[in-house]
Amino acid sequence: MPADGSAPIVAAVDGTRGSLRALDWAAEEARLRGRRLHIVHAFDWPLYHSTPHGLPGFDVEEYGQRLVRDAEKRARERAPEVGIDAVHVTGDVAPVLLGETHGAELIVIGSRGLGTVSAVLVGSTALELMAFGSCPVAVVPDREPRPPVGRVTVGVDGSAPARAAAAWAFGAAAERGAELRAVTAPRRVTRARFGALEEPADGTGEDPAVEAAAEEARRLLSESIAGERELHPDVRVEEVVQTGHAAKVLCARAEDADLLVVGTRGRGGFTGLLLGSVSQAVLSHSPCPVVAVRAADDR
């Protein structure tokens, strides 16, 4: 996390239900972290300086200013102790939001919407933020929020991005007074160079090769988070090794969590996690908000 305590949490809004739920989550996150909340609305209508055909009297600036005023009012009602400001920017969404990541603690976006943040899970905006942004990215699902359960789940595979994700997750768990669940999904094993992958139905150690792979995964998991455990001795930790598809394992282990944290790159079960179909599966099906973290060297 940035050492600069003044770095704000940025919330992207477009007036849709999904973005307003993301705003609510961002306001609560700002309260938990003692951060300012910076609300941004970017409008990318083609030829946005002209009146759109069929909408006489439509004014982009008036619309944008009204939207951010309403968003700011909503956030202040939810978190009155948080310092809040809001801006409307006329421009392409992805470049505007990428610019907002510089100096930010976290940028928060909704998983669905009909406006400028629409289809963020399957479009380029989320991927651009995750690939090129300068801070972690939180994607909040468009679902009725659940009561907090006091648990943060993080995917770990020994890679630098996964270690960065673990560091972020430990901090988030400490701020919430929550338990941390560290999950790794080892690859299935094969007995021959060109043999079929095999996976035990019950995950027991009846097969020596499977048990050896699981033991190596447990060792890697423990070593990967050992440093963070020392830095956060008060955080309760559960270590989980579960063979299976990375996205499916993570989503299942986030069913009873407040937050799922992942690295944007990795090896083993999490290779390409936020770069292709697996990423969209995690973001589309996670039962809780997902935070994607990149290693500092990748920024």
From TrEMBL:
<feature type="domain" description="UspA">
    <location>
        <begin position="151"/>
        <end position="294"/>
    </location>
</feature>
<dbReference type="InterPro" id="IPR006015">
    <property type="entry name" value="Universal_stress_UspA"/>
</dbReference>
<protein>
    <submittedName>
        <fullName>Nucleotide-binding universal stress UspA family protein</fullName>
    </submittedName>
</protein>
<dbReference type="Pfam" id="PF00582">
    <property type="entry name" value="Usp"/>
</dbReference>
<dbReference type="InterPro" id="IPR014729">
    <property type="entry name" value="Rossmann-like_a/b/a_fold"/>
</dbReference>
<dbReference type="InterPro" id="IPR006016">
    <property type="entry name" value="UspA"/>
</dbReference>
<comment type="similarity">
    <text>Belongs to the universal stress protein A family.</text>
</comment>
<feature type="domain" description="UspA">
    <location>
        <begin position="8"/>
        <end position="141"/>
    </location>
</feature>
